[in-house]
Amino acid sequence: MINTDHLSPDAEALADELQRSDDYRVLRRVPKPYPSMPHMGPVPDGRCVAIVDTETSGLSAEHDVIIELAIMLCFVDDGSELIGHFGPFSWLQDPGRELDPRISLITGLGAQHLMGQKINDTFARGLLDRADLIVAHNSSFDSKFIERRYPDLAGKAWACSCSEIDWLKLGFDGRSQSALLAHAGWFSDAHRAAADVWALFWLLRHRQRDPGGGPVRTHLARLIDAADTPSAIVQAERAPYSKKEMLKARGYRWNPDGPFWQIELPPQKVEHEQAWGYRNGLPTMTTRTVTARERHR
């Protein structure tokens, strides 16, 4: 477990006593954000990872807008070990329209918080442009809003901490950020962008042994490794409508831009998947390779 130096020693003594009983489970609040740079000096050499979260006026990147944006930068060495971090920085944005009350219930943001507010786009874009990899817990959602606001960032490499880490094999229940954080023994204030970014960073720096007796490493290292590994999209083009439920049950998702059903797999599993499609009466399945620059789009 990550150290608990930021917590009250007296409270920690009580928490330790509770943890000795199987009838209790203790969650600790993540610390307040703090920077950590080598010798508190200039930006270190190494790979730059931006952790991002957006709160939005709705679910459609085409019709809705960002109302809160948070970004922090992390730096890792060649072995994906953390060597520095700073942020998060966060901004509010007036959507210029009435906010759905349900969004206010989720985020705690209302018209009184957003009126006249504006994201510092020069600064925010500069942070994202500096990053070699952008991380979010739902990258397929956040990337669309980010690229709509900053079109020149299209094609940046993204990684998704929800889908690209095999949390089940690591012994976690669920994949929501709050559930993962709780499993690791922590909690934070959710649904505000800066708090969510910092909580995700805190989760990703947690160390755990790889399944099957592999090395002990951070979840951030796992995520970077997954993002760096090309994968294959297997496309069930011209699949009969009668095969819809079969494909869904196997994990295929509908791609309306195709339109066709598709699944993302490691390259070594493609031949097996194509053979499965043949045995189940599907037309010859096509494939394409995707990297972090195309994934989650």
From TrEMBL:
Gene3D superfamilies named in the record: Ribonuclease H-like superfamily/Ribonuclease H
A Gene Ontology cellular-component term: cytosol
An example molecular function term from Gene Ontology annotations: nucleic acid binding
Protein name: DNA polymerase III subunit epsilon
Domain Exonuclease: 48-213
Example GO BP: DNA replication proofreading
